[in-house]
Specification:
alpha+beta, nine-stranded mixed beta sheet, eight-stranded mixed beta sheet, 17 helices, 19 strands
Length: 436
């Protein structure tokens, strides 16, 4: 429905709640097609409430904004990916570096405070009405159909509302789509941003130009709590912190801030940060449930995208959310555009979003890694395997004048001293192949 045909009984064709990646992509795509769109953001400006950042697998953005790679506030192009096993005395890294990753530009580090603000500006450029500093209290309903939003004493009406209000989506609760998520589906992320001179970062992480490094860390960084650590290089800062599964954190009686500090002071990690200045520190709720968190995605007059739809993935090697958010925004905008043209905002009409999303890389990847969350419930991932790996490599490199043994007997000897049993190792390896 173009502006001249806009129905007089609505304030906007579409109201998008939440100016993150998913909300901005949805709003941008709809405005480009000529629809009137309100983008409501709770923070005083887009990105101001967003602590997160990290690696954005951004190929999907080239479909939305071809100029993204050249114009967006990208920090660095990730050319080094490290999977690290940390113990109090060892740091074992699977270090993968590939210049092709820089050429393709598929993975970049970003700071969301900058990225979200830039995306919202691009939305305004194509006609989206940005309304920051608005707290949406709930949905406006007419019988079983969503017809707008409520903010304090004010109401705004639209043909479709898009819920892009994050992992703890109040709009989804108001619509009856989801109850409070079980704590094993959620994690708390505690993050610091540490300023360091650009040349110091490039020297410490063996980087050139705009190359970047991304570390995924398991083991001592969480002191056995389910979760892991992360470290990403920005232009002149480092994003570093821990993500801790809520149920395990509570059961073990650990403090998330203490575990964050413990990780940053580990002898293997502290040298990366030496001399740095703390710029930001905070915590944020993170979705960890994978496909189990994907509930209904539509109601009459309502479409759910991004984190609010449960679209995040932890594969152990990659942590993904922003690319899935963008993918869902593209499909949501396409479905809503069709609904506006047909004047049909029923459940059946908007359910095309769910079907089409399921056929894209978003739906397919959520299915591929559906078993990953259960695999990461295994407590051996957060201590025993790191120590076992360290003991094997210690046996390889500690040439102490004793006669050498082949690798296999060395592994068996380390396994004999480890709490991990051979049968458990075989079962876990099989589970890893199926889940990851």
């Amino acid at each position: 429905m173009n502006a001249e045909n806009q129905s007089p009984d609505v304030d906007f064709d579409v109201i998008v709640v939440g100016a993150g990646v998913a909300g901005c992509v949805t709003a941008y795509q709809l405005a480009v097609k000529g629809h009137s769109v309100l983008l409501a953001e709770r923070g005083p400006k887009p990105g101001s409430k967003n602590l997160s950042g990290g690696v954005f697998y951004c190929s999907v953005m080239k479909e939305v904004m071809p100029e993204f790679e050249a114009e967006a506030p990208i920090e660095r192009r990730v050319t080094r990916n490290c999977l690290s096993f940390l113990s109090p005395t060892s740091f074992v890294n699977l270090d993968y570096r590939d210049e092709r990753l820089a050429q393709n530009g598929t993975a970049v580090t970003v700071l969301r405070a900058k990225l979200d603000d830039w995306l919202a500006t691009k939305c305004e450029d194509v006609g989206v009405t940005l309304m920051p500093g608005i707290k949406v209290d709930g949905l406006l309903k007419d019988a079983d159909r969503i017809v707008g939003i409520k903010a304090g004493d004010d109401t705004l009406r639209s043909h479709v509302v898009v819920a892009a209000d994050g992992v703890n989506s109040f709009l989804c609760r108001d619509a009856g789509i989801r109850a409070t998520e079980p704590t094993n589906h959620l994690a708390v992320g505690v993050k610091s941003v540490i300023r360091l001179p650009r040349e110091v970062i490039e020297e410490r992480f063996n980087l050139n130009g705009d190359e970047g490094a991304a570390y995924a860390v398991v083991g001592d960084c969480t002191n056995g709590v389910g979760g892991g650590g992360f470290l990403y290089t920005n232009i002149d800062s480092i994003s570093i912190g821990v993500v801790l599964r809520l149920d395990d954190l509570v059961e073990r009686g650990e403090s998330s801030s203490d575990l964050h500090d413990r990780f940053l002071s580990n002898p293997a990690i502290a040298p990366f940060l030496k001399g740095g200045e703390l710029l930001e520190y905070g915590s944020h709720l993170v979705a960890e449930g994978g496909r189990a968190m994907v509930h209904d995605l539509t109601r009459p007059g309502l479409v759910v995208v991004g984190d609010a739809a449960g679209l995040t993935l932890n594969t152990g090697l990659t942590l993904r959310g922003m690319d899935l958010a963008a993918g869902s925004g593209i499909v949501a905008a396409k479905t809503i555009d069709t609904a506006l043209q047909q004047g049909d905002f029923s459940q059946a009409s908007l359910d095309a979003y769910t079907a089409e999303l399921d056929a894209t890389f978003v739906g397919q990847d959520m299915r591929t890694y559906a078993k990953a969350p259960d695999f990461f419930l295994n407590p051996r991932m957060y201590g025993d395997y790191g120590r076992l790996l360290s003991d094997v490599l210690y046996g390889v490199y500690n040439l102490d004048m004793k006669p050498r043994r082949h690798l296999l007997p060395m592994v068996m000897a380390a396994l004999k001293e480890s709490p991990v049993k051979a049968m458990q190792l075989a079962r876990d390896a099989y589970a890893a192949v199926r889940a990851l």
